[in-house]
Design a protein that fits this description.
The chain is of the alpha+beta class and about 150 residues long. It is built from two helices and four strands.
Length: about 150
């Protein structure tokens, strides 16, 4: 029963995320300016929900990863922002945080939000790397690509 409710919630979140991300991004006009101290783009519920869901998928489908889940995000910060321009048409926001896992350990997480790069260019794309969980070195050693 709980698993069915969780699945329904995740499905609903995935359907609503592109709409929520698009409206927030346009309302704040993030493509033209982001204050480096402002982490609001990094702590949007749809972004954090997508990371949590995809991390759950990762630990269940990549061999030899511990069976843990993200239970909390803390110290969320925006550490770099590249606004859209003629030369670089996709706005990118590089974020960092600390996640608490279900085993009680804290890990660093680095993630990238690319505006307008979601499925069929609807919504935003989110790439993430949890320190110690990039088994296949997709984001280079220590999540370096997303830092």
């Amino acid at each position: 029963m709980i698993r069915a409710i969780k699945s329904a919630f995740l499905a609903f979140s995935c359907l609503c995320a592109p709409v929520a991300l698009s409206s927030v991004a346009h309302a704040a006009d993030l493509s033209t300016y982001v204050d480096e101290g402002d982490a609001s783009v990094c702590n949007m519920p749809a972004v954090l929900s997508r990371i949590t869901s995809r991390f759950d998928h990762q630990v269940h489908n990549v061999p030899n990863l511990p069976d843990v889940a993200i239970t909390d995000f803390s110290r969320i910060h925006l550490h770099r922002s590249l606004p859209a321009s003629e030369r670089w048409p996709i706005a990118r926001h590089y974020c960092g945080a600390t996640v608490t896992l279900s085993d009680g350990r804290d890990r660093d997480i680095w993630y990238l939000i690319e505006e307008g790069q979601g499925l069929a260019s609807i919504g935003d794309n989110v790439e993430f790397c949890v320190s110690g969980f990039d088994r296949w070195m997709v984001y280079n050693g220590g999540c370096r690509v997303l830092r």
